[in-house]
Amino acid sequence: MLKTVYTACRTCYSAQNPEQIYAGAEDPEKMLKLIDRVISSGHYSTIEHIQVSFAVSNVSRACTHQLVRHRHASFSQKSQRYVQEKGQFDYIIPPTIARDEALKEKFTALMEQISQGYQEFIQSGVPAEDARFVLPNAASSSLVVSMNLRELIHIANLRLCTRAQYEIRLMTKLMCEALDEKWLEPYLVPKCERLGFCDEDKSCGRVKVKS
Amino acid sequence: MLKTVYTACRTCYSAQNPEQIYAGAEDPEKMLKLIDRVISSGHYSTIEHIQVSFAVSNVSRACTHQLVRHRHASFSQKSQRYVQEKGQFDYIIPPTIARDEALKEKFTALMEQISQGYQEFIQSGVPAEDARFVLPNAASSSLVVSMNLRELIHIANLRLCTRAQYEIRLMTKLMCEALDEKWLEPYLVPKCERLGFCDEDKSCGRVKVKS
Amino acid sequence: MLKTVYTACRTCYSAQNPEQIYAGAEDPEKMLKLIDRVISSGHYSTIEHIQVSFAVSNVSRACTHQLVRHRHASFSQKSQRYVQEKGQFDYIIPPTIARDEALKEKFTALMEQISQGYQEFIQSGVPAEDARFVLPNAASSSLVVSMNLRELIHIANLRLCTRAQYEIRLMTKLMCEALDEKWLEPYLVPKCERLGFCDEDKSCGRVKVKS
Amino acid sequence: MLKTVYTACRTCYSAQNPEQIYAGAEDPEKMLKLIDRVISSGHYSTIEHIQVSFAVSNVSRACTHQLVRHRHASFSQKSQRYVQEKGQFDYIIPPTIARDEALKEKFTALMEQISQGYQEFIQSGVPAEDARFVLPNAASSSLVVSMNLRELIHIANLRLCTRAQYEIRLMTKLMCEALDEKWLEPYLVPKCERLGFCDEDKSCGRVKVKS
Predict the structure, then answer these.
(1) Which of A19, A22, A74 lies closest to D148 in CB terms?
(2) How far apart are CA D12 and CA D15, in angstroms?
(3) ipTM of this model?
(4) pTM above 0.90, yes or no
C-alpha cells in the first residue's frame, strides 16, 4: 500500500519513471514522510490509487440508504427484490429503543406483525419485490463496499461527526479500525478535527463553531 | 438546449471558437443533423452540457433507494431523520396488492399498525431518526433530482426495461415525457432497442437474446 | 437559479413536496438566508442542481491540460487530431516571457519554426493527428466546459490560490466574474479563505500556515 | 480477485452474508460461471470492487492528454511545472514520421531546437512552469494510473477501436496484456465486438455499420 502511494507521489515531482521509483522504495520512514507532506497539502489524488473493500453485515436499511449516497464508492447490496425472506427477517433495534424494556417489546412485536404480513403476501402469490414494500427501515442488510482512501477519509470526516446517526458512525468507526493503517489515522477523524472548527448548523460543542 | 449542444459538438471539430459558433447557430435542422451524427457515434460527452432537474413526489422509499444508486445524478431527498410524520404517513401500494381487495385491506391495516407504532415511539420521546426504523419501504418520499442528458439516457435505457420494477419504470417514463424533447426520444428507450438484442439474464422476450 | 436551490434545500427538511415549495418560493431574502445556512454547514449537494456552462477561448493547451483534470466537469475541446492548423497557429506567451522583449522575440521565433515544421509535415502527407506532435503547450485552444456550482466552488478554491499557475487562475477568476452571482461570492475564493489557514507546502504567506 | 468479485455478485442474490460467501468460495470454475453470467447481463458494478494500477512511461503528452479525459480513473502524472528538463527532453516520434528517414530527421532537428529554446529560457530565469510552454505534445511523460475493472473495460472498448490514435491503442493493449486475466479477455475488445456493429462515423470496415 505504502509503496504504491509513495510511487504515485514521487512520480509527480521526479525525473525518474514510476518503475524506477517503485523499485527504489525501501525506507518506510522516508516514504511516510513524503506521503504525509503531500496529503497534508491537500493533494489527495495520490491516495486514490489504493482501493479497499469491506464486507458489511447486520446493518439496517436505514444505514445503507445513507451509505449508498456516497457516489465515489462501489456497492453490491443484498437485494430485497431477489432474496425472499424465509421466516422472521433480521432487524436492528436502535439503542434509544433497546435500552427501554417496554419500548423494545413494542418494537419486537411490531417486527413480528410486519413479518407475518410479509409472509402472507408471499403466500398469496405477491412477488418478493412487492411484498418487501412492508419491510421496515430496521430490516438488516449486507453488502460489499469498495472505495479508495480519499473517499474513505471523506466518509470518515462526515460520518464520525457526532451529528451523524449512531449506526453509520459505528460502522464507519469499525471500517477505519479494520483498515488498521497507523499513518492514515490522523485523517480518519470527524471533520471538525481537520478544519479546526465545527461547521454544523447544530454543533455538539466539542469544537468551537466558526464565528 | 439545442444551441448549447450544437456549440459543444462543433467546438471539437471547428477552427471557430465557441462564441462564434454559438452566435452563428440558427438553423435547427442543421443543428439536429450534426447532433444526431455525433451522439449516434457514441460521443455522449457533448450532451453532458445540458442538465435537467425533476421534482419527484409520491414515490416509495423502495423506488428512491433504487434511484439514488445512480451516481452521476444529484439528489435532495426529504429526510426521515429531520421530518417527523404527523398522523398517518403516506404510502404507495404496489399494483399486485392494490388490485386484490383483500390484500389491499391487509396492506392498509398493516400501514396503520406501523403508523400507530411510530407515533407511540415519538410520544415516548424516541427521536424521529430512530422511530423511523419501523417505517416501511412503502412510505412515500419526495425529492429533487438533477442529471445531465447523458445520464438521463443511461437511466432510461436501464429503467425502461421491463425487468425494472414497475414504479421506477413509470417514474422514468414520466421524466422522459416531462422533458418533451423530440430529438432525444430515439435514445430514451429500453437498452434492448439501442443494442439490437436483450442482455438480461431473464429476458421478457420482446427482443431476441444475444446468442 | 435561487428558486431551484431553495427548493432542493427545503425538500430535505419539509413536509411539503418540491412543487409546493417551488410555487411558494417568493422572498429572495428568505431564500438566501436558508441557502446560506445550508451551504455553510457543508451540505453542498443542494447546489449541484445548478449547472453552468462556459465558452473558453484563447487559453494554452498547458492550461486546458490542468482544467480537464477536474473530473466532475464536462468538456468539449477543440481537437488537434481533427482540426488542422492553417498557417501560423495561435499561441499564448507567458507573462514572464512577454515582459522581456528579447525573450519574447526568441519565443515568437520558436513558434514560427514549429509552425513551419508542422506545415511541412502536413504537406508531406503526415496526418494532422501526428503532425500535432510538434505543437507546443503554448498552442491556444478553445472549449465548452460545464460544471455544477459545487464543482465551481471546488475549482475556485484550488485555482484562485496564488500557487496555481497564472493562466488557470485568471481563467477561473473570469469564470467567477462571468457567473456574477453575489450570494456565491463568499465561496468563490482561494481555499485558505475558507479554511482559515494555508495548507500548501510552499505558502505565499497571505494567510498563516496551519501549525 | 475472483473471490472478491464472486462475493460481490453472490451478495446481491443470497441470504448468506458476504463473509460466509467469501469463506465458502473455492471452486474457480463455479465462480467464473456466475461472474460471467452477471457481467454479460450488464451488471458491471460487481467488478468495480477490483481496482488495478499501472505504471506508464515513454508515452507522449498527446497520449496522456487523451488518457486523463477518462474521469473514472486516478492519475499521478509527472509535472512539467515542477520537474525541470535537464538536457534534451525525451520525446515520442509518431510512426508515420519515424518510417521516413527525411521526415524523422526534420522531426529530430525540431525537437533539438525546441530543447535549446527551453534551456535558454530556463537560463534566463524563466520558471520551468513557463518555459514548458515551448515543449511539444511529443514530449514524453510518465504516470501512475488506477482504475477499476469496469472502467478498464470501458477504456478498452473505446481505445482499442482502430479509430483511436495508434499510441493510446498500443498503451491500452499493453495494459490489458499486463493484467493477464483470461476471464476478462472477452470484454477487453473494441466496442464493435461487444455491440455486434460499428457506431463510428467513419468506420474502418472491420465490422458492419449499424443500418
Answers:
(1) A74
(2) 9
(3) 0.94
(4) yes
